[in-house]
Amino acid sequence: MASPSLIDAWLDTFAPRPSTAAIGGALAGGAFVQHERGIFELRPTVVDQRAVALVISVGVHGDETAPIELLGETLSRLEAGLVRLGAPTLLLLGSPEAVVRATRYIDTNLNRLFERGREGMRPEQLRARELMTAVDRFFSAHQGRARLHLDLHTAIRESLHPRFAIEPFAATSTPAALWNALHGAGLQAGLRQHAHSWTFSHYSRHYHEAQGFTLELGRVAPFGANDLAPLRPLGAAIEAWIEGAPLGLDARDGEVAMPLYRVAREITREAEDFRFAFADDLANFSEFPPGALVGADAVQGEVRVGDRPQRVVFPNPRVELGARAGLLVERLD
Ligand SMILES: [Zn+2]
């Protein structure tokens, strides 16, 4: 087995023609091994009973570079011995090929393919299966341990909450203490999904009873143009979990210290002439009063806000007919 450094191995995943050799080496507190391109497992020598089985994924969308830079900083500190490995950890570069090409995806949106039993040989379909297999092996090797999967993204549009956590819909609910840990890591709001969506974080929550979240961490920008300062509290939290910090779910539950939202309704595009009643660059979480017009098309007529104020998240009027064009969300009291 070759023995390059973790950083060399990580950077090699971004090479147009990466090494295909099995790669592994030593780290402070343990060792790392690369199973497939961009799939790194960190194995501590000694594991505290309360340490989490931790999955961190970045680059599921290839043009979302800030999380890749943030994780790179953590890998540098691991390699320098400033962070000491104490938790079983899986680090995933979602779509190396899309990152190399600086594009959101090669062929189709990877982050809706994480469902068992799907077939297909297109690039993202193949990669989704590799990533699901890696997560399956990892969690099954760490039965009985608390599980956390953070899938790190950046968003296309502005947001009134620049950094927010999406809780996928699943049987596993999120304790207040974990919402507050995310708030302490710089997240400003939480959004609870209302239906299954076959994202990567949903995969871990749905199939593995993990605490899985999709984290939206500000605006998309190319490598070198990201301001990492607002993300460093998250980097510090990830490093604490890598070192073996517990999830802290035994802490007293209490109040959630940041706003939480639930999905009140999905807006779908029913006809070719679908349009929103607001500007294209509307910020996520922009609020509309009860009864306000938010969109319309020839089939469904007008789409209006219900009896309570609602906020628009992820609007996209150019989706295929019948697809989700946006969400109306309400604040949970
Ligand atoms: Zn994304």
From TrEMBL:
Where the record annotates domain AstE/AspA barrel-sandwich hybrid, the positions are 258-331
Q: Which GO terms describe its biological process?
A: L-arginine catabolic process to L-glutamate; L-arginine catabolic process to succinate
Q: InterPro entries from the xrefs?
A: AspA/AstE_fam, AstE_AspA_cat, Aste_AspA_hybrid_dom, SuccinylGlu_desuccinylase
The active site annotation covers E216
Q: Which UniProt keywords apply?
A: Arginine metabolism, Hydrolase, Metal-binding, Zinc
**Record's cofactor remark:** Binds 1 zinc ion per subunit.
From the UniProt record, which GO molecular function terms apply? hydrolase activity, acting on ester bonds; succinylglutamate desuccinylase activity; zinc ion binding
Q: Does the keyword Metal-binding apply?
A: yes
Q: Which reaction does it catalyse?
A: N-succinyl-L-glutamate + H2O = L-glutamate + succinate
Q: Which cofactors does this protein require? A: Zn(2+)
The superkingdom listed in its UniProt entry is Bacteria
Binding site residues for Zn(2+):
H61, E64, H153
Q: In which pathway does it act?
A: Amino-acid degradation; L-arginine degradation via AST pathway; L-glutamate and succinate from L-arginine: step 5/5
Identify the residues that the record assigns to the Succinylglutamate desuccinylase/Aspartoacylase catalytic domain, covering every copy.
53-237
Give the E.C. number(s). Answer: 3.5.1.96
Matching NCBIfam families: PRK05324.1
What's this protein's function? Transforms N(2)-succinylglutamate into succinate and glutamate.
HAMAP family referenced in this protein's UniProt entry, alphabetically: Arg_catab_AstE
The UniProt entry's sequence similarity note says: Belongs to the AspA/AstE family. Succinylglutamate desuccinylase subfamily.
> This chain belongs to which protein, by name?
Succinylglutamate desuccinylase
Q: By which gene is this protein encoded?
A: astE
